[in-house]
Amino acid sequence: MYGKSPARVVLLLLGIQLTALWPIEAVEIYTSRVLEAVNGTDARLKCTFSSFAPVGDALTVTWNFRPQDGGPEQFVFYYHMDPFKPMSGRFKDRVTWDGNLERYDASIMLWKLQFDDNGTYTCQVKNPPDVDGVIGEIRLSVVHTVRFSEVYFLALAIGSACALMIIIVIVVVLFQHFRKKRWAERAHKVVEITSKEEERLNQEKKVSVYLEDTD
């Protein structure tokens, strides 16, 4: 301590105070965890994050891949101020940056999916001094056709219920319309019959008066 200059001591104390004032927290990663896509299509691997520290030039994003059938982890994508695509391997010319760091989005696009793309994709974000945190994972399943999920069944049920309600409303409206039309026709017939009856009675009355006058 005695061998250090006063200036170095002040800088050391200032650094300790700044570290105490700037708490280090873990970066939180959010992913869909499970993703299913059709062979030959494109998929967006969504990865968003939250960080106590503001986003700066030191922020890095690393995407890696673990094959479903085992094997070593493979590099997919890296971002540090600019995107760095893989120069070789299965993901060459098949992955692009699709994130927006201003919105805390570190997503990527994976093009022309293949069945050997099945596996787990990891998203790691470091935003110094926030460098710790759980790595986000997405388990991708490439299939021939997308299976119906609970969301699809729910949407189908809601759509069917809405269609049924519309049909019921249409039937009720048509029923009321034809019912009113039938009542109108009956009323018209009653009026017509009444008019003819009154005309007949008037004719009979005229005949009766004529006969009385001739007598």
Automatic annotation (TrEMBL):
SMART domains found in the cross-reference section: IG, IGv
Residue ranges of every copy of the Ig-like domain listed in the record: 23-141
InterPro entries: Ig-like_dom, Ig-like_dom_sf, Ig-like_fold, Ig_sub, Ig_V-set, MPZL2_Ig-like_dom, Myelin_P0-rel
Signal peptide start-end: 1-26
GO CC aspect terms: plasma membrane
Bilayer-spanning residue ranges: 151-175
Record keywords: Disulfide bond, Glycoprotein, Immunoglobulin domain, Membrane, Signal, Transmembrane, Transmembrane helix
Cellular compartment(s): Membrane
Membrane topology category: Single-pass type I membrane protein
GO biological process, one term: cell-cell adhesion
Keyword Transmembrane helix on entry: yes
Membership in a protein family: Belongs to the myelin P0 protein family.
Name of the molecule in the record: Myelin protein zero-like protein 2
Species name: Carlito syrichta
High-level lineage: Eukaryota, Metazoa, Chordata, Craniata, Vertebrata
